[in-house]
């Protein structure tokens, strides 16, 4: 016991030791001190004003100002994006600008940009209107000329749709236009304009219904796309001319045009006036193009000057807002001259925090220093593990299940090895492993470039797990060499096979079988097993027993880690009444099964282990006969069976009654000193005598212990069976790879046609890449994840802690990325 206590601590085995601290900061030093702490990133502040709304806090006005500046900067960023410019990724450093100066600068830039946008919008709208007017003049003039030519060219049909009148007794408008000498003498009028092409059909139908067919509607597509002033998108438009008669029809048509968003333009009937107006419109368009071009250049120059400093401004405002948000978590003392803050920090960070606070006091030339001292608290500290780029991904896998309780044993230490190994047991193929290794090495080689880029969700997940993928591929190569599978093909890598055919023809190799003529194959599965009649029974037996051995070993590791947790938290009850009976129960049954497997492998016995384990429960006193593997097996089985039966009430009954006794003695004052720092687990045990003495509930504690005991007993069986997924997925991967190799690649290469061979090779490559390397990888990954979360971690891992989230500028930048 003393030896275990004197062992050196592992960096990742336990979370960092935390301490609760209080800061008393003079008001004049507060901003600088919080800024330095944000750069350090090792102090998590506690909100002392959580009972106040955001609008009741001290620095709410500063937060609003920062939020307003953030809005302006987002506006600048959107404008730069719309203009097609790029803001500088590495901004040129400018002299330090305080918040007030930056605020004034941003207001000026915003006012200037809004004014330029308004002027540009007006000019663009005028330009669009003149462009539409020019098109209407060109197209509508043609309609008017063709209308007048109807007097000399009778029977000529218009190019556009003409709707006849609903009333046969009245003459149509076309006939009236043909019979009359001019539009003035007959009362025929027209309205010309332009409308989006998508609305033409409904517009025409509405006009026809409103005038009861007494109109002539001509249309023609515009030659150019025109910008819509509402959506700012280039849209297709159609020029129309509506001929009608009567003032009432004119009113209706104008209202319909307004409702459909059609722009109407006056077109004179005189060709000379049309030509003159067209020339004037063309001249104004040319002038507006020049003006717009100058305006865009001026606006882009202004946006470029903003874009040079945009990144540094956004970072500055973001930091300032974070500082004031943190200051809002602090309280004023009674004198209103100091701010009081509380929070958590790692013990190793205390000197660094004190140095940062002293530097803030010195830089601000404050006469009063910042007080930093440690406080006692009953709260559970946050959990903080210092990780690097290699261990971070494994820690994230564990944290996805639940964050470790403070100072609880960390499964990530073992997950670094066990997770990729169990994956490889299911994925074992050294050909596929090499493919995964190449992918992992590419990600690692381009680590510096990819870490600074914006990646998609899938690529970001893949890049974050690059070192997990590296170990998964290495272990897959190792397990593939043991299985002797290279894209499902066995090779004589480590020497000759130990088996040979019975005769030179090898005709009965796959029916009768081979004969052994030399020592066993030195490493892994003998390649001669592939294709033999015993291949599937042999590999099934091997992988199934191997899965049970791995499962029992990992579950024992989990129970052993619960022992180290109990030692660390000084919880002797859990050692005596949980760890000991759990070890006895698990190993009396499944530890014994693992022992039988190893003995059978070593001795070559033909004993049926199914029969041994079943009749160990049904007929423990019967003679084992040919299933006896060693002397004294039957008495040992009886002893193990009795031990397993005793272990169940051992787990269930003593602990609740001892807790009740300790609780009663504590309140009677007879044994106050017996219950030391954590004789019971205060965080997991309901009715803790230390925290909630008056709420101790024996029935609740007993039910909790009963559920825990039943869960372990049933879980020992189900969890051991769950590890058989290692066998099942390994077999499935091997057989699927064999099917693609034999039924696709070899079948195609059996033909003499080069086209069939190339198609077969392509199908094999596609199946290998997308099914075996992607889908099978994902499947094995998820199953390995389940084995760690459920079968391994539930033996010792509570996972009910909370992460250490310090106030850090670097963490803010990572979140934005």
TrEMBL record:
This is Uncharacterized protein. It comes from the Eukaryota.
